[in-house]
Amino acid sequence: MSASARTTIDVEVRYAETDQMGVVHHAAYLVWFELARTRHCATSGFTYAEIEQMGYWMMVTGVEVSYRQGARYGETVQIECWIDRLTSRTVHFAYVVRRDGRRLATGRSHHLWVRAADLAPCRIPERLAEPFARLVATESQA
Amino acid sequence: MSASARTTIDVEVRYAETDQMGVVHHAAYLVWFELARTRHCATSGFTYAEIEQMGYWMMVTGVEVSYRQGARYGETVQIECWIDRLTSRTVHFAYVVRRDGRRLATGRSHHLWVRAADLAPCRIPERLAEPFARLVATESQA
Amino acid sequence: MSASARTTIDVEVRYAETDQMGVVHHAAYLVWFELARTRHCATSGFTYAEIEQMGYWMMVTGVEVSYRQGARYGETVQIECWIDRLTSRTVHFAYVVRRDGRRLATGRSHHLWVRAADLAPCRIPERLAEPFARLVATESQA
Amino acid sequence: MSASARTTIDVEVRYAETDQMGVVHHAAYLVWFELARTRHCATSGFTYAEIEQMGYWMMVTGVEVSYRQGARYGETVQIECWIDRLTSRTVHFAYVVRRDGRRLATGRSHHLWVRAADLAPCRIPERLAEPFARLVATESQA
Predict the structure, then answer these.
(1) Looking at this predicted complex, what is its ipTM?
(2) pTM score > 0.90 for this model?
(3) Choosing among B9, B14, B41, B93, which should be mutated to test the D contact, i.e. which has the most D CBs within 10 A?
(4) Whether D16 and B38 lie within 8 Å, measured CB to CB
């Protein structure tokens, strides 16, 4: 995969993700975001699993979700993910959940680079700096 | 239970709530918030299960969480919950997660009253207006 | 999709599915089974969402799982699902979870047809009898 | 806590645990079992968190659950847990889930002692042999 501005994944709604309202429970969206983020990170040339093996974590420091309409079992939704902002020490992702082009939810997640060994905040690992910057650069040109 | 400004519950961390970072996955906090909200609503004199039986839902329209420190398996955390803001059509809850008095996370959730039958937004059910207002009134006096 | 003996789906391990042992939590396998079962039922010509809309549920009455080796974040696993046994009132599914051809887990789930309206056990809905029997017939011929 | 034959815990049903059938999703029972097992292990004098810190895991090798009746949001259920069988290398737990004395589900889980460092199966850690045997002994006398 080459660096791309935005990654969109398909997610089939799982029965276990629904609640007694008959729609997907609101906490499941964070798990979907993570799935899209995983796929988007991989376009940098490094999967998140590999990044962890290098000894780094993108620790989640915050999330926001705005829900407009529910997703239902039997449906497949699309999660679009992109890097909204990148600093030397943080990464900020944005997400849109859609079904047939209609927005169901939007969200953001905020991450801090930390060393897995001691949880100390750190700068983006050197090998990732350029690949991640390229993701954003591509974005700006889009 | 009588109306009270704030409700604090104890939650024992579940093994299944941890992830491979060794701490509780960030999505679990939304489930903990819901548990605290359930208990806090009950102090109004109506459990949320009863509210649903009346034909109403407090639909989640948004959430925000800010994470400071992770919770671990083997720990019991405290979730404090209160109504942050109340309008004729919406309820806004705030949360603090603590372990031994130390803040692990804070959050808010936003809810819209809807009729379960047709998902139409509506005013707070009449029988609940006064009990919910009392929760906030108590809060202001605290 | 036409009736087929067995359905195999790919499932990308979600970070949230791991626990602090560094592998997928054992409860997640039931959710994966359900996902494979959903896809397998659809080959009958009726999705499970449609079956529910007809007013029937395949209520889970039992499950068994045997775990051999853990699945990890960063991996994609295959879930194979087939109908193991079919009676006029019950359906029994079997599952194998594999990664690169290697067995990670096996399982079974047992289901009872019930009418959604009153939860009364019932015979397999008439419109489904033949399509489901065909799934098993195909299986026997395989 | 002193060694006891059986441990019973109260679990408040979480909204997120329900699915669109209006009852608790069947996978949630495995998480409840784990919660009861955690509490039961602690009566040995060693919490499971401490056991992991010693460098050992009770790896889950199998589970079986039999479901009779659903649990609902708004309810509190009781999970009873005991050691069903103990060998030098394995531990087998049994569970009953009840609501107001009525059986909702029963289950068993099977565990193998492994060294966390290399996942090699091993005998029960020496310091735990006697405390765990005592749990079973108490049981036999009950």
Answers:
(1) 0.94
(2) yes
(3) B14
(4) no
